Amino acid sequence: MINRGAHFISGLLNRKPLPATIRAAQAVMKAYISLPALFSHQTAEPGICGIIPPRLQSLTVICFVAINVILCCVRYQAFSGNLYWSTPQLQVWRYVSDRTGVLAMSNLPLIWAFAMRNNLLMSLTGWSFSTFNIFHRWVARVATIEAIVHSIGYTVFSFLGWYNYDADWKEQYWWMGVIATIVMSLLCVFSFYPIRRYTYEFFLLLHIAFAVLFLISMWYHVAIFAGEYNVFIWPCVAVWCFDRAIRIGRLVFLNLPSFRATATYNQDANSIRLTIPTRSLLRPRPGTYYYVYLLRGIKLWESHPFTLASWSSKQLANGSNIQDLAFMVRPYNGFTARLRDHILQKGEEINGHISKLSVRMAIEGPYGTPYDLSKYSSILFIIGGSGITVALSHLQALLESLKESQNKEKHSGVHSIRLVWAIRGAALFDDVFQQDLLEWRTPSSLTRQVDFRMDVHNTGAAMPATQLNGQIEIAQIFSHRPRVHDLIMECAEEWHARHEKMAVVCCGPGTMVDDARAAVVAAVGKGYDEINFHPEMFHW
Ligand SMILES: Cc1cc2nc3c(=O)[nH]c(=O)nc-3n(C[C@H](O)[C@H](O)[C@H](O)COP(=O)(O)OP(=O)(O)OC[C@H]3O[C@@H](n4cnc5c(N)ncnc54)[C@H](O)[C@@H]3O)c2cc1C
């Protein structure tokens, strides 16, 4: 919330020139706290244990862990001559066990709240699902360690003679507690990054089943307290039910027009386009994503996130409005490969390399924390492969805001847009260039207001000359990878000299996003403090 509040206040303040000291403090905050990776360069590129969150999020996690460690360790008053627990040793084991047990329980609502798709805290803080997912994992790890200490503590306490260890196993609260601790530990083990990455559906189903088992075992574990500790269990159930209810509501509401999509697979570009008619109450926002369900086969629950690429409205014969939402999907191994194969098998071949099919499909959304780029003067998109969807949705929104600005409905301050796109073959570029960038390619009173440039870095097979016809004017073609650091520095220097507020939006492989982040940090460090960085990732 402090983060969101700071953004809001700085948004208000930015309308007037800020005093030099506040700007300097802002720049220091950006360069050393809110933007950089924790230690080194790496934050978007997953390591063996998953991603290491950027510094501000990592510091939040470190503070949380530190608070829990401190609360577990301080102010135990053990003394000889205690009338109830005779020895200090016995007292310490008992106090530590109780303290860690209560702390583990009090963390449960946070674990559930941070895992939900519909999490109000995302709107309040402006932090993404991926950030809350990191918090979810860390709170769960801390709570699990506390539960393990609690279990070990009570076992030792029992062995030391306070309870009868063998008789304890006959007590329901005892073995239910053991089950809860084991299930909690297994939940952590089976959430290890490689399992999530390579067997996502197995991870998901197991996670849900274990979470239910855990709540039930906890319920019976604390039943001896006559409901005193249920106050930590009910919020988990409530948050979970609330999230599921909202998800079903969104699914039904959005898809009622048809529960169908038009799917087109372009073999040369190895890309699927989905166009899904939805009810149009909400205005689509760039940078949002939707979960896509394929309504065939037995895996109906399976849903995968895809970023909105574009949208258009139309009116049906009965007068109702329909919003067509479009997505671009890169087929990989599981869900996306099944979708591609289905289109290839059942679809109608439009020309040699494009197949089209009407598929039963549903989407759930919108999700994500959208942001408005029209408040910046200069925008630099650094995009890798199918990350182009992020740029396309923003370009459409920018065009709309230019129109609104022309009609005096809204002010758009955008002067320069540079789109740097790295691809592994010409076909995807050709497809996007022909279908999605038409308005930007055609000179008009709108596009003339903006200096739009496109650098295409094709590291795959060279583009045939025919594909370049008419494209050269706004697109420069290179045959090497983009030099992300140099590009950002160059733009920052140029735009800073013109006192322009600049946004860098990056969506691509983790290493590309990490390079962009490091370059923005370096640019801010050099005094180009009017830069904001918007990383987008296709994993969490
Ligand atoms: C916010 C976001 C936006 C994305 N936008 C796009 C896009 O516009 N275009 C595009 O081509 N790709 C996009 N992706 C990536 C896309 O979702 C994955 O490539 C796709 O799910 C993997 O397909 P697969 O065939 O390999 O699936 P599988 O092999 O069946 O799944 C494996 C992978 O999918 C991920 N995954 C599956 N389901 C989910 C889920 N419900 N939530 C989170 N991750 C899941 C897992 O982490 C795992 O890595 C996006 C990802 C995210 C997180």
Q: Per CATH, what is the topology of the largest domain? A: Four Helix Bundle (Hemerythrin (Met), subunit A)
Low-confidence stretches: none
Instruction: Please state the average pLDDT score.
Output: 89
CATH class of the largest domain: Mainly Alpha
Number of helical elements: 18
Strand count, sense and barrel status of the largest sheet are: 6 strands, antiparallel, barrel
How many independent structural domains?
Answer: 4
What is the overall shape?
globular
Nearest-angstrom radius of gyration? 27 Å
Please give the number of β-strands.
Answer: 13
| Helical coverage, percent range | 40-55%
* Alpha carbon gap, first and last residue: 22 Å
CATH architecture of the largest domain: Up-down Bundle
Strand order of the largest sheet: 1-2-5-4-3-7
Query: Cofactors and ligands present?
Result: flavin-adenine dinucleotide
What proportion of the residues form beta strands (DSSP E)?
15-25%
Briefly note the structural class of the backbone.
Answer: alpha/beta
Domain FAD-binding FR-type: 238-373
GO molecular function, one term: ferric-chelate reductase activity
Keywords: Electron transport, Glycoprotein, Ion transport, Membrane, Oxidoreductase, Transmembrane, Transmembrane helix, Transport
InterPro entries: FAD-bd_8, FAD-bd_FR_type, Fe3_Rdtase_TM_dom, Fe_red_NAD-bd_6, Ferric/Cupric_Reductase, FNR_nucleotide-bd
